[in-house]
Each structure stands twice: as C-alpha cells, then as structure tokens.
Amino acid sequence: MKLDILAITAHPDDVELSCCGTLLHQIDLGHTVGLVDLTRGELGTRGTPALREKEANEAARKMGAKIRINLGMPDGFFTHNKENLLKIARVIRQYQPDIVLANALSDRHPDHGKGAKLIADAAFIAGLSKVKTRDNDGLLHERWRPRAIYHMIQDYTLKPDFVVDISPYIDKKMELILTFRSQFYDPDSSELDSPISGKDFLDFIRARARTFGRPAGFEFAEGFNVQRTIGVKDLFDLR
Hints:
A seven-stranded mixed beta sheet has the order 3-2-1-4-5-7-6, sandwiched between helices. It has helices spanning about 15-20, 20-30, 50-65, 80-95, 110-125, 170-180, 200-215, and strands at about 5-10, 35-40, 65-75, 100, 150, 160-165, 220-225. Helix 4 crosses helix 5. About 40% of the residues are buried. The longest helix is centred in the middle third of the chain and has 16 residues, at about 110-125. By secondary structure, the chain is α/β, with parallel strands linked by helices. The two termini are about 35 Å apart.
C-alpha cells in the first residue's frame, strides 16, 4: 500500500495534539495518510500501554488514517542507532510516502527532539540503494526517499516556517485529542495530574492554533518547521 503522507512520532497522541488538523484537511483533499508511533508511551503519568494503544487505534479510525502501527521502541530510552534507523526505514520503504511529518526539532519532552532527528535520518537512509531491508515475506524492499519532511510544533511554541489552515477542523481536532481519555482532562479521573491533564492545557491547544493562524489570516492553524529551503512556483500561493 502506497500512502501519500506518513506521520511518524514518538508517542501515541503526538499526532493528535500537533498535526491532526492538517491530516484531516489532506484526507478531505483525497490524500492517503498513515500513522506510526515509535513507542507505546509506557512512561506516561496516566494510563497503560494497552489502554493507550486502544485509544490510538480509535483516534486513527476517527481520523480516517489507513494504518496505525507501533514500532515498540522504549519510551524515554530509545536511541539513535542502526536498529531503530532501520525499523523506520523499513516502514518508509513499505508505504512509500511522498511527505513525512515528524516530531518537533526541539521540545520539552526529550523524545520529541530525539525522534525528529531519528526520523529524518531514517528517511535519508531509506533512499540508499546499498542499505538492504526486507518485508515480512523476506522480499527486498525498493529504496524510497520522501520528497519532504515537515516537523510539527509541539509543547514549545517555536516560530513556524509555514502554517496550515485548519479552521474547518478545529472541533474535530479537539475530539481526536479527547479520544485519549486516559491522558487529557477528565474530572472523574483518580490518577495523578500531569502537565497535559488539566483543562487549561486543552484551552492552550485551541488558543495556540488561533495564534498560529492569525498572521496568515486563518482562524486556526497548525505550524511546521523545515530544515531546508521551501520553494514555490507561484507567489499567489503564499498567504
């Protein structure tokens, strides 16, 4: 199965918090989307790996993603090594995305910055003909390198290189976030509080989307960073 966009992130719920409005928009435009979680989020203050997996799959279904897979790396302790690079490269070769969305270049959670570099480097390695990977049947993958990698903005409010209008999708975005009932605001929960479990955090997510959108004339937007120069063919495409 070839997918147009593959969102690869460190934890279940990274996508929903940071770029699901963009993915909903692209799906409505007819593009195919897949989701890859590097870890099961097992070090999270709330919930369990099994519950988070159930929530993640439900969020993917609601979004309309074609696949959601988990690579089983250790939450908090995955490293930039050959094994993990090849795990991601195999997925990229299997689904041949034109665009990869990855974690923030720098963020409060160290897994996000680590994940950003790991994902970007794996995308490069996936395009090397002398690096061999095989599918589950033992057949060699074709080499594949995505056309672009865009890094979402997560907890830290980084200056975006571009923003995507998600105004029609802001309510659906919040619905997808709240699919992770174990992680976010629940007045009936008896678990420990976390930096993301308060009602004010959900207010922050909505307010930041408004902040990202305002300079471009959008009501709500999601921001992205890139590590290369962006090119356009028509000045009138810019807002």
